[in-house]
Design goal:
Blueprint: H1 7-16, H2 25-30, H3 38-86, H4 92-105, E1 111-116, H5 125-133, E2 139-144, H6 146-152, E3 160-169, E4 172-181, H7 194-204
Helix pairs in contact: 3-4, 3-7
Length: 210
């Protein structure tokens, strides 16, 4: 709108289109509306309502960010505690035991699993399932069928979900660590595995391979 536009034309347009501002909250919030007069009061009230809605939305976003921050802080502490516990491991069996304990105690996850890959045990069902799941990449996050859950987590016989990361050494992938749940929505494909990846990297560097 130019400065040379006739204000009478604007007034005529608004009178002919009384709902013009109804679906334009951003414009309404930007207007400088005086108090006074029956029509002006309703517009001011509408403007206040728009600003209130924006304030509520902003508070909700801040609350969500705060929750994310608290969860990341919890995961960071759990990761630190797990790394310290893993440093005490003397054998691969120790690593597996410590991992399963830390998954429950530090991360408050429902299920935990660590599977070592052995070239001489290709018929091991846990190894076979893990390798099959990793066919598409180094990490997995999503729903598993009951038979897959039962192999990775022997106490489970129902459908569930899992997040999984590879343990690597110079010779390649030597195993996986996984967290699981009987809730199929707990670990989803779009979820990240950052903290799990960190721990898998640490396990791959532990001096338990000789």
């Amino acid at each position: 709108m130019t400065e040379t536009m006739n204000p009478d034309d604007v007034e005529t347009f608004l009178r002919d289109h009384p709902d013009f501002l109804q679906n334009r909250p951003a414009l309404l919030a930007a207007l400088n509306l005086p108090h006074g007069g029956q029509g002006a009061v309703s517009l001011v009230e509408r403007q206040v309502a728009v600003l209130r809605e924006r304030s509520i939305t902003s508070r909700q976003k801040l609350a969500e960010l705060s929750d994310i921050g608290k969860e990341n802080e919890r995961l960071l502490k759990a990761t630190r505690d797990t790394i310290l516990a893993l440093l005490s491991a003397e054998t691969k069996a120790d690593v597996e035991t410590i991992w399963q304990q830390q998954v429950v105690n530090a991360f408050a996850a429902e299920l935990g699993s660590l599977v070592w890959f052995d070239p001489d045990k290709q018929d091991d069902p846990r190894q076979s399932v893990a390798q099959k799941l990793l066919a598409g990449g180094d990490t997995v996050s999503g729903v598993l069928r009951p038979e897959e859950m039962a192999v990775l987590f022997p106490s489970v016989t129902c459908e569930g979900s899992v997040a999984m990361s590879c343990i690597r050494r110079q010779q390649g992938i030597v195993g996986i660590i996984a967290v699981g749940a009987t809730n199929t929505q707990r670990y989803q494909a779009e979820d990240g595995t950052l903290f799990l990846d960190y721990l898998a990297e640490v396990i791959g560097q532990l001096p338990v391979w000789s």
